[in-house]
Amino acid sequence: MPISDVIPLYRLRIDTPRLTLRLPHPDELPLLADCAREPIHAVGEEPFENPIGLGRPSWSSAPPADRARKAVQVQLGEVAKWTADNWHLELTVWLDGKPIGVQTLYAKHFPVTREAATISWLTLAQQGNGFGTEARAGVLAFAFEWLEARSCRSRSFNTNGKSVGVSERLGYREDGIDVEAVYSGVARTSRRFRMDATDWHSRSRPSVTVTGFDDDCRTWFGIATQAARD
User: Fold this and answer.
1) Which domains does the chain have, with CATH numbers?
2) Helix 131-141 crosses helix 161-170 at what angle (to 10 degrees)?
3) Measured between alpha carbons, how far is 193 from 30 in angstroms, rounded to an integer?
4) d(CA 89, CA 104)
5) What is the pLDDT of residue 57?
6) Which of 37, 140, 142, 225 is the most exposed place for a label (fewest CB within 10 A)?
């Protein structure tokens, strides 16, 4: 029996003009591990959060073997602890059949709030080609058009210009700032961004195709089945 018969999330697939976003099957996890071994950002940069007290650089600056292990652990862990009230959809970003990063869509109490958030990473070699914008547009399309989200959030450190640029290109609105203490013992300011469903539908978007979002899959997100909707 294939794992997709047990966990319908593995049937879910989001296709954008150049990319495919989907969960890696168990036998594909070594490919994701190899992807995570590649540099995620330039030496000396710290674009990701790492709360003070952990006493080490962020995951993205960890040794390649540590990044590979953690990427696989996150994939397995988020599926294992998934509930309709608290979920992280850790979609691998595939380009020509090879992983180039991860695009996450996550939410708490989604059936009530209809609000989700995103976070992502791409290998350094694949940055600057518009893939980050395209991958996030893919999950936003899924959120707004298939999950019928009311809003989606994102957050980036001021120093993470690439992530901020993606939010601005896609039409998010500024939503305030946060000041956080990170592993180095310094305060860093992050910018919050928000997009509502009306913002998403207010402009033309790239073509996105979603397959595998059947009634079994819908229940994992706490969304009414099609029969109940009809």
Assistant:
1) 3-153+207-229 (3.40.630.30)
2) 50
3) 34
4) 5
5) 56
6) 225
